[in-house]
Amino acid sequence: MRARFTVSTTRRQWLHAAAALAGGLLALPALAQGEAAWPSRPVRVIVPFPASGATDLVARVIAQRVSQELGQQLVIDNRPGAGGTIGTAEVAKAAADGYTLLFTTSSTHAISPHLMPRLAYKADKDFSPIAHTADAASVLLVTPSLPVKSVQELIAYARANPGKLNYATSGNGTIVHLNTAAFAAQAGIQIAHVPYKGTAQSITDLVAGQVHLLFDSIPTGMPHVASGRLRALAVTGDRRSTLAPNLPTVAESGLPGYSSVTWFGVYGPAGMKPELVGRINQAFNRAIQNPEVIASLAKQGVEPARPQTPGQFSAMVQADSARWAKVIRDNHITLE
């Protein structure tokens, strides 16, 4: 009896072990299915710039729609500082599971790497490019006392009056600074740089004629044009802006090929699975084609990007980075 009991117990243990093994094998597809079910919880989206700033507002408009697309909330987390590089570095160190994303601009990936050699991240290695979401062109403003009404007249005036003109920016190494440096270099003119702590602070001096020109954002600059305080000559994008459709581009106004926009894009940490990157890319591409999103962005002077693959986005950023590297190098631009 005891022997039969021992054999029966051993057989029962073997059956339990076999059942457990079979259960584990059956559970493998379920685990894979769970991975494919991303997102199963809220996704953190780090915006490395202050709340209520331009990048933050754009991010919130798009993230709200992406949340609807995915059926899971995208939570905006503002981590400003050091020109956007602090929050950007945080994403570089995050897990590559799709639950920490970066919504950023050309500043952190195409400009800062050439101005800040000791960055805590490598823009071309520490991230998974995901989606190009939007672009924002600038408007070229001049003081009304300047006797020019077009880009060609401005260039002619600057050439005829060397050393007389200056331009305002929001600081050394900013996109405003780079826009103007690239403009002056292509036009073959010399104009003095007057840096401010922000473009808003330069408007009063621009109206008074103490500074002569400024590349400003379209939403903040055009109200001053409408009131007659400033004059607009052109926009910097490769096509006319919906906010100022009567203004020509700089390229069609005398500088063929000139184009400058601040792009907005989404990254994840390096090492994300291609399938996951593709899924997030599709969600953002669908969001930026939504009519309500397009209308909301237009109010901020921002236009949705043409949908791109992650590879196309990466190539665009590389080209933009190379362009700004040349402008920074040729014009000896530093943050000092």
From TrEMBL:
Signal in keyword set: yes
Signal peptide (UniProt feature, chain positions): 1-32
InterPro entries: BUG (IPR005064), Bug_dom1 (IPR042100), TAT_signal (IPR006311)
Annotated SUPFAM superfamilies: Periplasmic binding protein-like II (SSF53850)
CDD domains from the UniProt entry: PBP2_Bug27
PROSITE patterns: TAT
Entry-linked Pfam families: TctC (PF03401)
Record keywords: Signal
PANTHER family listed in its UniProt record: BLR1237 PROTEIN, TRICARBOXYLATE-BINDING PROTEIN
Family note: Belongs to the UPF0065 (bug) family.
Protein known as: MFS transporter
Organism (species): Comamonas testosteroni (strain DSM 14576 / KF-1)
